[in-house]
Amino acid sequence: MNVRMFLGDALVDAVAWDDRGLAYGESLFETMRGHRGRVPWWMAHMVRLRRGAEALAMPLPDAARMQQEAEALLDGGVGVLKLQLTRGGGMRGYAPASDAPPFWMLSRHPLPASVDALDAIWCETRLAAQPRLAGLKHGNRLEQVLAGAEVRAAGVDEGLMRDGEGHAIAATAANLFILADGRWRTPRLQSCGVAGVMREWALGELEADIATLTPEAVETADAVFLCNAVRGILPVRRLGAKAWPQVHPEIRDLQARLARAQPGFDPSQEAS
Amino acid sequence: MNVRMFLGDALVDAVAWDDRGLAYGESLFETMRGHRGRVPWWMAHMVRLRRGAEALAMPLPDAARMQQEAEALLDGGVGVLKLQLTRGGGMRGYAPASDAPPFWMLSRHPLPASVDALDAIWCETRLAAQPRLAGLKHGNRLEQVLAGAEVRAAGVDEGLMRDGEGHAIAATAANLFILADGRWRTPRLQSCGVAGVMREWALGELEADIATLTPEAVETADAVFLCNAVRGILPVRRLGAKAWPQVHPEIRDLQARLARAQPGFDPSQEAS
After folding, report:
1. Domain with A252 in it: what CATH number?
2. In this structure, are A178 and A66 located in the same domain?
C-alpha cells in the first residue's frame, strides 16, 4: 500500500480512533509533486508546515525522518506525495494536550493528467475571514469541500472563491494570478486562503503585486492563471461567461521557466 | 475498549487512512449525556445531526442502528457518549465522492465532575462568519482548539468567543444566555456558533429572545449561564474582572427544572 503512518518516530499501522485530526481537523498537510524519487520543493513545503505548526502550537516530527520516508515512498519514481500531520491522540475537549506525539502520514498518488487550460466558475461558497488561520494549509477544509461540490455539479475544472466581502481570493485548490495593465497581481491572504508554494515561486518570477482583487478585475484581466505545487501553472480558458481562448504568451513563458527550474513540471518528463 | 467503529452497516476495527473526516474535517459529531443506559435527548441530537448531514450532503447511517449501538455501549450505565460521523474514505481532492459508505464511531467517556459555577475569560480567537456552516456541529473546530488553548493558559473553566464584528456568540464548548431587564437572551447563530441541544431546551423554557449581544451587554447582565447537553446549565461566576458571586435564583430554578425534565442532569442521580 502506498501509505505509511507514524506516531512520533514509530511506524504504526492505523489511525488512532481518538486522533484530534479526525475529531477537530486539528491537522496540517502538504501536497507535493515527486520527481525521480525526490520532492524538488521539499524545503518550501517544510517552511510552510513549520509556520502552520507554530500557529497551532503543534509539535513537528523529525525533519530528516520525514524527508527520508517521503523519498522511500517515492522509490525513485514520480507521483503526488501527501503529508498529513495531526496533533495526535487526545482527550475529549478542545484544549489540546501538549504531550502527545504527533501523528503523521505519507501517501503516494498518481500524477494528475496535464491539461492545457481550465474552465472555471465563481463558487457561491465564500471563504470566512479568520486571520489566525489564514495562509496555512490546515485540516479545516469544509469550505473547499462545499465549493468543490459546486465545481463538480457545474462540470468544470475549478472554482474561484471570494471572501465575505466579495473579493476574489483563490480557487478551491490553487492560487490565482491575473495580468492587467502589464502587471501580474495575486490576492492578499491575510484573512483567508492558503499561501501556496507555487504562488510563492510565481510571485518572485513575475515580480507580481499582492493586491485586493474584485471579481470584475479578474473577469476583465488580460490573462488569468491558477497554480499549485502539484499541477504547476494552469491557464484559465473560461470563467463563467468570460473566455480567454488563447493562452497568453506570458503564461506560456512562465510555464517554460517552471519546466526549466523544476523538470518535474515539464510534461515531457512525466514518465521518468 | 469503549469505542465502536462502523463503515455503513459493518463493524470495523480501524479508521481508514483516507477518511475524509481526517483529511478535511468533513465530519459531524454529537456529544451526549447517557443516563441509565439511555440518551434522553437522542432525538434532539439526531435532528441536529440530520440538519448537518443535509447541509454537507453527507449520507447518514441507519438511525435505528445508531441508537441501538449507542445504548449497547452505555450498557445500562451513565457517561458521555460521543458520536462522530464522517464522509468516509475518498479520493484525494476536495469534491466529495457520493458513493462511499459513511464512517461512524461511538465512544463512551466518564461524566465530567459537576461544578457549582464557572470562571471564564474573553478569548482573543474570533469565530469566523460562515453562514453555510453556522449552527452545525461539524468537524472543523480549529477556532475552538485555539480558544481552548487560551482558556487553559488562563487557568479558567471556559472562554467566551466573539465574531469578527465583536459580538458575543458562545463559549468554546457551550452556548451563552444572559439575563437583563427581566428577559433572557442568547446570541443569534446565523453566521457562526453551534446551535446546541441544551440551548434549544433553555430557549423554550425561558421564552428567551435571540439577539445580537455585545460584550458590554454580557458584562452588565444580572446573570449569565453557559449550557451544553453534557454538563447542563452552568452559572458563570466570573468573567474577566466582572463577578457574579451568587448564583441567580432564576438559574437555580432552571437547573431544578432541568433535573425534573431529565433526571440525568440531577447531580444526585449521577451514580445510577
Report:
1. 3.20.10.10
2. no
pTM beyond 0.90: yes
**Are residue A126 and residue A249 in the same domain, yes or no?**
yes
Same domain, A97 and A125: no
* Domain around A162: 118-262
Q: Is B142 close to A129, i.e. CB distance below 8 A?
A: no
Residue-wise pLDDT for A44-59, tens only, equals 999 999 999 999 999 9
| Probe site for chain B from A80, A142, A152, A172 (most B CB atoms < 10 A) | A142
- Among residues B109, B143, B166, the one where a domain terminates is B109
Tens of pLDDT, residue by residue over B226-253, are 999 999 999 999 998 999 999 999 999 9
What would the 3-class secondary structure string for chain B be?
Answer: CCEEEEECCEEECCECCCEHHHHHCCEEEEEEEEECCECCCHHHHHHHHHHHHHHCCCCCCCHHHHHHHHHHHHCCCCEEEEEEEECCECCCCCCCCCCCCCEEEEEEECCCCCCCCEEEEECCCCECCCCCCCECCECCCHHHHHHHHHHHHHCCCEEEEEECCCCEEEECCEEEEEEECCEEEEECCCCCCECCHHHHHHHHHHCCEEECECHHHHHCCCEEEEEECCCEEEEEEEECCEECCCCCHHHHHHHHHHHHHCHHHCHHHCCC
Determine the residue of chain A that is closest to B4 in CA distance. A17
Q: Which of A96, A139, A145 sits opposite B96 (nearest CB)?
A: A145
Q: What CATH number has the domain bearing residue B33? A: 3.30.470.10
